[in-house]
Design a protein that fits this description.
Two copies of one chain form a homodimer.
Chain A (H helix, E strand, L loop, with lengths): L7 H15 L6 H7 L14 H24 L4 H18 L1 H7 L5 H5 L3 H12 L6 H23 L10 H17 L5
Helix pairs in contact in A: 1-3, 1-5, 3-4, 3-5, 3-7, 4-5, 4-8, 4-9, 7-8, 8-9
Chain A binds a DNA duplex through helix 2.
Chain lengths: ~190, ~190
DNA sequence: CCGAGTGCCTATAAACTTTAGGCAAAAGTA
DNA sequence: TACTTTTGCCTAAAGTTTATAGGCACTCGG
């Protein structure tokens, strides 16, 4: 009886793939076990429970997305950094809808604080260094960018833009222009 | 044996309350039946299945939110309309986190087209009538506002802003100022 | 007051979650 | 190599949820 070679890491990775295929909320311990030709109970040596699996996938997705964003940011600044970073988000959500949904999972505060979510905020703040947003507004600007990126990508993923005419890609490009201009000429308080 | 007086409407309403209490993804046919002191099977006379329940709650939340937004918009224009509308979203998500999560449920295209989601987009477009955004950019501006509102509220709900210093309320007010200014002086293409 | 319809019931089956305990393969030790 | 320890996946089993089918009794129109 050859062993399947399970581990928390392999289960998380396979869970992320499963999420992309069937949707994050369809990810179950049973379905994941089926994918490894193994009984569901066997997974409980590696996972505490079903919620633990979901949290692991969420952390995995957050880290993967942060890695891609960091790579895109390397060597860029200003508008170039802004669009590169933004496109990483949008592309990730389009390529990996299940993982992107996972990254939105509500984490308890200490888990969130130890997650790659922190890196995301740091990277947005790094982008702002290419602009002259005055210090007291920096955090506000970080939140503006983060909210816009997430909101746009999430609405697009949920079909919010599918009915009206201009392609989502076109709005995206135009709005990144607008935001770039806004950051360059940030209004004083 | 006194009847519980179930109906799709009462179940949807109670499902929305349940969502606010325990989270939208914890809403199950079983839990809802328990709340009415009724067997789960009884609900299937009123609901097709578990997914049907979730869709009904989502449509209920979308409509309720649209009603509140419409009420807030009445008699207002420009910046006044913008902030009133935005605050309806934020307040709704804070008062009714489960319903707000429900409103994000992915609907199939024809259901979405028949939902109150359409009214949301129309109202944002109405707000823009108080500004001089040139026609070709109107849809982009609608998407900017929609993305920002949803993204901010959703990140705040998921604890994304809880660690860093400025209160989420403060950023919100400042960013609405910024967006108002942006809309007033929308850059030409 | 009676007949018809429908509202909630019981019974049942299948899928998923989770715990407990067992056996055999893998890894460590002499 | 042989023996022990560890660990990985198993079976068994109980509890929960979803969903269907069929039945009884309450309610309402006549």
């Amino acid at each position: 009886m050859v062993r399947a070679g399970l581990s928390a890491e392999r289960l998380t990775q396979a869970g992320a793939e499963l999420a992309d295929e069937v949707g994050f909320d369809q990810v179950t311990v049973s379905a994941l076990a089926r994918r490894f030709d193994v009984k569901a109970a066997s997974l409980y040596s590696h996972l505490r429970n079903s919620q633990d699996l979901k949290v692991r996938i969420a952390l995995f997705a957050l880290a993967e997305l942060a890695d891609r964003a960091a790579a895109a940011l390397a060597g860029r600044a200003g508008r170039d950094a802004l669009t590169a970073f933004a496109n990483v988000y949008r592309d990730y959500a389009r390529e990996h809808p299940g993982r992107y949904a996972a990254a939105q999972l509500r984490l308890d505060p200490e888990t969130a604080a130890a997650s790659a979510g922190v890196r995301h905020a740091e990277m947005v703040r790094a982008i702002l260094r290419g602009y002259d947003v005055p210090e007291p507004d920096q955090t506000h600007a970080v939140r503006l960018l983060g909210s816009f990126f997430h909101g746009y990508v999430s609405l697009e993923a949920n079909g919010g833009f599918s009915h009206s005419a201009p392609e989502a890609r076109e709005s995206w490009a135009r709005l990144l222009d607008i935001l770039d201009a806004l950051l360059r000429t940030w209004p004083a308080s």
